[in-house]
Amino acid sequence: HRRHSQPYASHRPRDFAACCQASKAWWRRCSEPRYQGWTAKEWQDWIAEPAGASWCENKRYEADWIVDWMIRHWGMELLRGGVLDVSGEPGFLAAALLAKGISVTVVDPTWGVTGKAHWSNDCMASARGTGAKLSAFSRDFDERFLVDHPEMWQLSVVVSLYGDEATIPALAFAADAGKPSAIVPCNECAHFFPDHNKTYEGYCEALLEDAWWRGGYFQLVFMEGVPFSRALLVQGPKGFRA
What is the pTM of this model? Predict the structure, then answer.
């Protein structure tokens, strides 16, 4: 047998250890939770760049637009009864509500862990001096959660922006409870688009039909001048017409 220039045992552990370290690092990257395809660290790094910061600022602009719309059409008295924000990470809408003195309860299993922190979604800073309060639950919004937290039924308004899997539960809750609601369906979630009309418009129409079937009275409002989706599914107080 051909001999190694050094005894095999003398260099194998060093090589083997290096392989193990590389394997562990690779496995950590693969097993680390991802949010819309990126790890928390990747989101954090991107948001620190100009493009990421601009995305955050546009998201806050969108949230401010929706809050201002609800105030104009429904009034502060209704909103001060408390807003339920379903799938509200990373907090753009919650921060916009708090800045107006409106208390908000966020329900999202990824709350505070996605790496998307930015001044535009800093809820504590937004609430400072307003008297508004933030409550957050790192839970899925489902029947079990509502059993555990019946106080959710006491909140006045239901909102959900780009809630993905939580969109239908939020819409169903609002329809069943007859609560004013504002929901922006995810415009990039093609896997939710219905087979008979695989477009974003088809998805919005399917959600409206589902809400009507449940006894809701949602309408489609066009959000003019916002940088992302223009579709806002709205259920106002009884008698409201957009």
Answer: 0.85
